[in-house]
Amino acid sequence: MGGLRYLLSVPALIHVLVLRPALKLLLGVHAEGKENLDGLEQFMVVANHNSHLDILLLFQVLPLRHLRRTHPVAAYEYFSRSRILLWLVDRLFQPVWIVRGDDSDDPLGGMRTRLSGGRSVVIFPEGTRGEAGQIARFKTGVGRLAEEFPDVPIVTVFLAGPEKALPKSQSLLIPVWNTITVAPPTLFRGTPKEFTADLELGLRELAAAQAGGRHRRAVRAREVPAVAVLGIDGSGKSTLSRLLAQQLSRGGRACLVTDEVEVFEDGRRRPVQLLLREKVRRSLGRRVKTARSLKSYKIPKLTELLLRDQAVEDLRRWFAPDVIVLDGSPLLNITAWARLYREEAFDDEVCLSALEILSGRASSVRDEGPILRTFPELAALKRLHLTRMSVPDAVLFLDVDPA
């Protein structure tokens, strides 16, 4: 009876008859996975935060019976600038107000109170609105809260579009299509720090999966150093690469690109959801290992190396690592092929030119240049615009006797 009374109240009617239709009409809203909230009596929603539209969009996917029982976290100092805005937000969303800079205020206290009363909360673990299209590191408060309420499911939600419709630095609303992706609920496991890291990776994977369906990506890759380990097969480079990634992840996050992609956090490997092209790369890698002739080896291996290079950019963009470790280097491996197959035409000058072309740093090299006539494969890569390969920031070369 209480739920029905609320649905007939003024705040509920504004949500159902005004806010939801207006957002769909002005911005366009597409929700995927909203059924993951059905049947849940209580939950914590964890979402990325780039815009003040985020709360409005999240309330689009809430079941009607949860509208009055779900409380988003909001910054009091921002909304208190306008008494009317503060009143409206407080009336419509009943937020958990956070007062920044108040040392006496427990930022988790209001959320604990709501959760203890059987209510649900919406949390932005980044702490504040971030740069458009970027996901910042999660603060561990969400992990501590999940540990205190281990029976409350956590639902991760990725929002795409509000960072363009109403960016952090703008006040003018721009009509841009918005997508809300809701992941299945999960329960607390491990430690607060580990669980926080798992939630962050889960959100980044949602972002990557959602962006994988778009032709163009608006998110720019973060500048992250890359270390390549080179050596012949059997020299121990794969083992060294993995150990190096584990050690460099102490106190942060490191990604390893080998026959597969691995993500390490504080020395522990984390599960990663594969993008489609990463699955294709693995399939090509298996085919390369069973190739019985040079002809059946070269093209699949070249394709695998190009996809491996793309994996470096994907990791920079979607997983925000502190460092990337490469088991081999696509740029250096392909350059080495020139030495292997055309030894008579290869010298230091040719090597440097090949590296400049493959890394996209040789805009002055013309298609009819001598090196491109000598190495038609290099010319083909340039014509196909496949010459923007990543340059490692450091290279470790294992010079080990093959015996």
Secondary-structure blueprint of this entry?
Blueprint: H1 2-7, H2 10-26, E1 29-32, E2 44-47, H3 53-58, E3 70-75, H4 76-79, H5 83-93, E4 96-98, H6 109-116, E5 120-123, H7 141-148, E6 154-160, H8 162-165, E7 178-182, H9 192-211, E8 226-230, H10 237-248, E9 253-257, E10 261-265, E11 268-270, H11 276-289, H12 294-318, E12 323-327, H13 330-341, H14 348-358, H15 370-374, H16 376-383, E13 394-397
Parallel strand pairs: 1-7, 2-5, 2-6, 3-4, 3-5, 8-12, 8-13, 9-12
Antiparallel strand pairs: 6-7, 9-10, 10-11
Helix pairs in contact: 7-9, 11-12, 12-13, 13-14
Question: Could you explain how this protein is built, in words?
Answer:
With about 400 residues, the protein is an alpha/beta fold. The protein contains 16 helices and 13 strands. The strands form 2 sheets. It has a 7-stranded mixed β-sheet. It has a 6-stranded mixed β-sheet with strand order 11-10-9-12-8-13, with helices on both faces. Strand 9 (about 255) and strand 10 (about 260-265) form a beta hairpin. Helix 12 runs antiparallel to helix 13. The longest helix has 25 residues, at about 295-320. It is elongated.
User: Helix and strand succession?
Assistant: HHEEHEHHEHEHEHEHEHEEEHHEHHHHE
Average pLDDT reading:
83
Helix percentage range: 40-55%
In percent terms, what proportion of residues is strand?
5-15%
Number of helices: 16
Q: Give the class from helix and strand content and strand pairing.
A: alpha/beta
Q: Report the radius of gyration as a whole number of Å.
A: 26 Å
